[in-house]
């Protein structure tokens, strides 16, 4: 059992029972979390921006939604995940946490980009906790069919419990 902490632009997958995938303080960033019901594998990415076409370079696999979502699906497929028929996807984050300074709408654009890319792969989120004005931490544990979201003020809540 290990704790895998994802930073901005990171991608991680695991099918090892007890492993925890976690990413902290999602503001305008978006976490795309996926679980294969058939293999119990979990995957997570921490997206910072919607498109790599912005011109800034990043070597991180999931810094941009347009690179991160396909990479996550490839990594899960390599672990035997059935993408269309068995994958449950959750989106978390995409907030506007800095009052008056979100003129670019990065959070909303990140959520829309993630949804569009999932749709292009024949998928849709089965659960979401996006938007608003709060930062979120999200974690999953392999072997448990649930997504936990926390915020320092609101506490912890179960976002999704898969069957």
Task: Set down the secondary structure blueprint.
Layout: E1 3-6, E2 11-14, E3 20-26, E4 30-36, E5 42-47, H1 65-78, H2 83-86, E6 87-93, H3 106-120, E7 125-130, E8 136-141, E9 146-151, E10 155-161
Helix pairs in contact: 1-3
Please describe what this structure looks like.
There is one protein chain. The protein has 163 residues and is of the alpha+beta class. The protein has one domain (3-161): 2-Layer Sandwich (60s Ribosomal Protein L30, Chain: A), CATH 3.30.1330. Helix content is 20%, strand content 37%. It contains three helices and ten strands. The protein has helices spanning 65-78, 83-86, 106-120, and strands at residues 3-6, 11-14, 20-26, 30-36, 42-47, 87-93, 125-130, 136-141, 146-151, 155-161. Strands 1-3-8-9-10 form a five-stranded mixed beta sheet, with no helix packed on it. It has a five-stranded mixed beta sheet with strand order 2-5-4-6-7. Strand 6, helix 3 and strand 7 form a beta-alpha-beta unit. Helix 1 (65-78) packs across helix 3 (106-120). The model has no long low-confidence stretch (mean pLDDT 91).
Q: What's the N-to-C terminus distance?
A: 23 Å
Largest sheet: 5 strands, mixed
Element order: H for helix, E for strand: EEEEEHHEHEEEE
- Indicate the CATH architecture: 2-Layer Sandwich
What is the CA-based Rg, rounded? 14 Å
Mean pLDDT: 91
State the CATH class. Answer: Alpha Beta
The fraction of residues in strands falls at 35-45%
Task: Report the structural category.
Answer: alpha+beta
Number of helices: 3
The count of β-strands is 10
Name the overall outline: globular
Task: Strand order, main sheet: write it out.
Answer: 1-3-8-9-10
Unreliable parts: none
Structurally, the number of domains stands at: 1
């Amino acid at each position: 059992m290990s704790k895998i902490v994802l930073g901005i632009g990171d991608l991680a997958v695991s099918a090892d029972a007890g492993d925890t995938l976690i990413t902290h303080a999602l503001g305008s960033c978006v976490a795309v979390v996926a679980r294969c019901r058939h293999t119990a594998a979990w995957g997570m990415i921490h997206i910072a921006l919607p498109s790599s076409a912005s011109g800034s370079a990043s070597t991180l696999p999931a810094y941009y939604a347009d690179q991160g979502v396909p990479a996550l699906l490839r990594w899960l497929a390599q672990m035997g995940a059935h993408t269309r028929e068995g994958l449950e996807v959750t989106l978390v984050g995409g907030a506007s946490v800095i009052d008056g300074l979100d003129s670019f709408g990065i959070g909303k654009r990140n959520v829309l980009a993630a949804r569009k890319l999932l749709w292009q792969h024949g998928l849709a989120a089965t659960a979401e906790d996006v938007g608003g004005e709060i930062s979120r931490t999200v974690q999953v544990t392999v072997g448990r069919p649930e997504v936990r979201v926390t915020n320092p003020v609101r506490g912890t809540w179960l976002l999704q419990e898969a069957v």
